[in-house]
From TrEMBL:
Family matches, as Gene3D superfamilies: MFS general substrate transporter like domains (1.20.1250.20)
Signal peptide start-end: none
TM annotation in the entry: 21-44, 56-77, 84-103, 109-131, 143-162, 174-193, 248-268, 288-306, 313-331, 337-360, 372-396, 402-423
Key words of the record: Membrane, Transmembrane, Transmembrane helix, Transport
GO cellular component terms listed in the entry, alphabetical order: plasma membrane
Pfam families: Sugar_tr
Membrane-topology descriptor: Multi-pass membrane protein
PANTHER family: PROTON MYO-INOSITOL COTRANSPORTER (PTHR48020)
InterPro entries (UniProt xref): MFS_dom, MFS_sugar_transport-like, MFS_trans_sf, Myo-inositol_Transporter, Sugar_transporter_CS
PROSITE patterns in UniProt: MFS, SUGAR_TRANSPORT_2
Domain Major facilitator superfamily (MFS) profile as annotated: residue spans: 19-427
Protein name, UniProt field: Putative major facilitator superfamily transporter
C-alpha cells in the first residue's frame, strides 16, 4: 500500500477552508454584479432615457469584460504569480463600483461595467489556480466545484439589496456602488495569502517555496515533496497543440454547451415561463424557484463528484438535463406545474456540468499554463454565452418557445456527446498526474478526488 503523500493526502485544514472561502469571492461578485444590473436598469432606463439597444449594452458590458479579463488574468497569473494578483484585481472592482454612483451618462456606465467585468473575469483563473495547487486531491473537486454555487449566492444577495433600494430616489446608484462592500471584505480577507509553492518552484524560487510549504503543511515538508510535475518548459502555445489542444477543445466545448442554455433560461426565465403559461406573480415566483434549484443542482454535483467520478457525472448531467429541455419543447401546452417541474429538473441535473467547469480546467493542465488554460476556456465559453443569450429573445419571437427549448436540448446533447468522446477521469490522481498527457487511471480503490 502506497504511503500517504504529505501534500496530496493532507487532511483538510483551516487554511484550506479559508482559502476556498476567500477564493470563492470572485464568483460571488460575478453573480452579484451581473444580477444587480437587472434590478438597477428599472431606474436607470427612465433616468437616462435609454433605448433598448443601450439597455442591452449596459447589461452585456460586464459579460464582455469577463470575456476579455479571463484570458488576460490567466496569462498574468502564470507570469507574475497567483498571490500578487489575488488582491489587485479586486481593488479595480472596488474603485469602479464606487465610480458608478457618480456617472452622468450611459457611456461612462458602460465603460465602468466593462472594467468591472474584466476584473471579475481575471479573478477566476487567479483564484482557482491558487486553490487547486494547495488542495489535497480528496478535496480538490469539491472545493473547486463550490465556486459555481457561490455565483448563485451572489445573485440572491443582489436581488435582496436591489429590492431594498428599489424605492429610494436614485437608488440605482447605491445598488451599483454596493458591489464595493463585499469586494472590500474579500480583499481584506485575502491579504496575507501565501504564493503557490508549485508556481514558485517553476520559477526556481526554491527557498520561498520551502518557506510556504513549512508554514502551511508543517516542519519537514519541502519542495522534495512536489515530485509529480516534471520540470519542463511548457508555454501557452502548448494549449493549442499536442494532447493539450484536444483538452482545450473538450473544455471549451463542454463549458459552452453547459452555460448557453443555462444563461438563456436564467436571463429570460420569466419570459419563457410566461410563454409556457406561467404569468404574473406565478412567473416571478417560478423564476425564484428555478434560481434556488440551480443552487441545489450545484450542491448535488458537489456531493456526487467524488462518489461518481468526473466522467460519469458530466455525461449523466448533460444527458438528463438535455432530456428535461426536450420534454419542455414537446409538452409546451402542459400544466403550469409540469412546466415548472421540468425546469426544476433541468436546473438540478445541469449542476454536475456547472461544477466541473472549474474542476476540469485546473486539473488537466500543468502549473506553467494552468491559469492561462482556465482563462482561455472561460473566455471562449463566454463568447458562446453572449451569443446564445442575445439570440434567445430572437428565437422566442421567430421560432417559438417549443423550438427554442428543443434547440437548447440539442446544444446540451452536443455537450453529452463531446463528454462521451473526450471526458477523462481524474478522480484519485495527483494534480501532476492529472496534467500529464496520457495520465494513468486512478486505482479502483481510490477514495480521493
Amino acid at each position: 500500500m502506497t504511503a500517504p503523500h504529505p501534500l496530496d493526502d493532507a487532511p483538510l485544514s483551516t487554511f484550506h477552508k479559508k482559502l476556498a472561502l476567500f477564493a470563492s469571492g470572485g464568483p460571488f461578485l460575478d453573480g452579484y454584479v451581473l444580477s444587480i444590473i437587472g434590478v438597477a436598469l428599472v431606474q436607470i432606463s427612465p433616468d437616462f432615457g435609454l433605448s433598448s439597444a443601450q439597455e442591452g449594452l449596459v447589461g452585456a458590458s460586464a459579460l464582455v469584460g469577463i470575456l476579455l479579463g479571463a484570458f488576460a488574468g490567466g496569462w498574468l497569473t502564470d507570469k507574475f504569480g497567483r498571490q500578487v494578483l489575488f488582491t489587485i484585481d479586486l481593488a479595480l472592482i472596488i474603485g469602479c463600483s464606487i465610480a458608478q454612483a457618480f456617472v452622468g451618462n450611459v457611456w461612462w456606465l458602460i465603460g465602468l461595467r466593462l472594467l468591472i467585468g474584466m476584473a471579475v473575469g481575471a479573478d477566476y483563473p487567479i483564484a482557482t489556480s491558487l486553490l487547486a495547487e494547495f488542495s489535497p486531491r480528496r478535496w480538490r473537486g469539491p472545493l473547486l466545484g463550490a465556486f459555481v454555487a457561490m455565483w448563485f449566492v451572489g445573485a440572491v444577495a443582489a436581488y435582496f439589496v436591489g429590492e431594498a433600494l428599489m424605492h429610494v430616489d436614485g437608488g440605482w446608484r447605491w445598488m451599483l456602488a454596493s458591489a464595493a462592500v463585499p469586494a472590500i471584505i474579500i480583499v481584506l480577507a485575502r491579504i496575507g495569502t501565501p504564493e503557490s509553492p508549485r508556481w514558485l518552484m517553476k520559477k526556481e524560487r526554491v527557498d520561498e517555496a520551502n518557506a510556504v510549504l513549512q508554514k502551511v503543511f508543517g516542519p519537514g515538508v519541502s519542495v522534495d515533496d512536489l515530485p509529480e510535475e516534471v520540470h519542463e518548459n511548457i508555454r501557452v502555445s502548448a494549449l493549442l497543440r499536442s494532447g493539450y489542444g484536444k483538452r482545450m477543445a473538450f473544455i471549451s466545448i463542454f463549458w459552452t454547451c453547459s452555460i448557453v442554455p443555462l444563461f438563456a433560461v436564467y436571463a429570460f426565465g420569466p419570459k419563457i415561463l410566461g410563454a409556457l403559461g406561467l404569468t404574473g406573480t406565478l412567473a416571478n415566483y417560478g423564476s425564484a424557484f428555478i434560481t434556488l434549484m440551480f443552487l441545489v443542482g450545484c450542491l448535488v454535483g458537489l456531493a456526487l463528484v467524488n462518489r461518481m467520478g468526473r466522467r460519469p457525472l458530466i455525461i449523466h448531467s448533460f444527458a438528463w438535463a438535455g432530456l428535461a429541455l426536450l420534454l419542455l419543447g414537446i409538452f409546451t401546452n402542459a400544466s403550469a406545474w409540469l412546466v415548472l417541474a421540468l425546469f426544476a429538473a433541468y436546473a438540478v441535473t445541469i449542476g454536475g456540468t456547472q461544477i466541473l467547469q472549474w474542476i476540469y480546467p485546473n486539473e488537466l493542465f500543468p502549473t506553467e499554463v494552468r491559469g492561462s488554460a482556465v482563462g482561455l476556456a472561460s473566455s471562449l465559453s463566454r463568447i458562446g454565452a453572449a451569443i446564445g443569450t442575445y439570440l434567445v429573445p430572437v428565437s422566442l419571437s421567430h421560432l417559438g418557445t417549443a423550438w427554442t427549448m428543443i434547440v437548447g436540448a440539442i446544444v446540451t446533447f452536443v455537450g453529452a456527446g463531446v463528454s462521451i468522446l473526450w471526458a477523462p477521469e481524474t478522480r484519485g490522481l495527483t494534480l501532476g498526474e492529472c496534467a500529464s498527457i496520457g495520465a494513468p487511471s486512478p486505482e479502483p480503490t481510490a477514495k480521493a478526488a
